[in-house]
Design brief:
Layout: H1 2-21, E1 24-35, H2 59-75, E2 84-90, H3 93-100, E3 110-114, E4 124-130, E5 135-142, E6 157-163, E7 169-176, H4 184-208, E8 214-219, H5 227-232, E9 235-236, E10 247-248, H6 252-256, E11 262-264, E12 267-269, E13 272-277, E14 288-289, E15 295-296, E16 317-318, E17 321-322, E18 332-337
Parallel strand pairs: 1-2, 7-8, 9-10
Antiparallel strand pairs: 1-18, 2-4, 3-4, 5-6, 6-7, 8-13, 10-13, 11-12, 14-18, 15-18, 16-17
Length: 338
Amino acid sequence: MKFKIFLILSFVVITANTAFSQKQYTIGFYNVENLFDTIHDKKKTDQEFLPTGKNQWNSEKYFNKLQHLSKVISELGSDDGPDVLGLCEIENRRVLKDLIKTPLLQKKGYEIVHYESPDVRGIDVALFYKKSIFTFVDAKKYKVKLPDKKRSATRDILLVQLANNKNDTFVFLVNHFPSRLGGIEKSNPNRRAAATILKSVFDSIITANYLSNIVMMGDFNDEPEDSSIKFVLKCNSTMGESSYNEIYNPMLDLKKKGEGTIVYKKQYELIDQFMMSNHLLFQNNKVHYVPNSVTIFKPEYIQEQNPKYKGEPFRTMAGQKYLNGYSDHFPIYMKIAY
């Protein structure tokens, strides 16, 4: 009898140790709020972020911004920062190079994936990954054609395929959907158009390989229950291991708790989100999403301390007023076990 109890206890201990010994990747996303350099690009309307522009954007402000962002990124999700990081509201590849050269990030070994987008303001999406952990496989960009003729261009959707040293492949899709300029209802068709392209890309990947590990991330300018997410992408917000061609959105639980990544008119809105292929939900797979690991990262130093706005994201600019903060968005992260 004692021997049987010993065997049972041994099995429990071994099982528990196996579960806890699994390593984890940290995947992050951050809207960095207008990371512009101070050099004019004739192809972009970047005049407001020049030394002579209305924001009086100079080298001191720019380098303060880089140092602030690097601190947040270096602490995002782990003591060593994220292994993969999606970014939006960056002007060009130059600012990305300057960011990873900051003292807090230069030893992380980040590689950059970036394409210029046709956005009229000149802001793009990009992705960092640690070259010590992942190998670059492929990258593409997908143009989003807007139904609103007054807004002729927006950010492309960035696809990046990476592989780890065990030949597991991952597809990351970085998004920055069109804004709510003109009002939520009037601008809604623009975000639905972006979601339609994203869903088409997702479906094509799953059709080619239904076991694909896909993580979609971005500033969607819509919340989990808005139409672009709920009806166009057709996200499933319950953690049931259902059909492979469905998209799982883990953000709804955070929304139900009243959490958000931005504040608009004193209300938190959860517009920065992760979504993923259902294949990542199967906990028996060697690579899988860690349940309930999605987190909004908001240490006190990136929160506004002014009593009037206390707890809100400590932003760089409020209109044309320079606050010397971080971003008007809180970053997010999630974990993948392997």
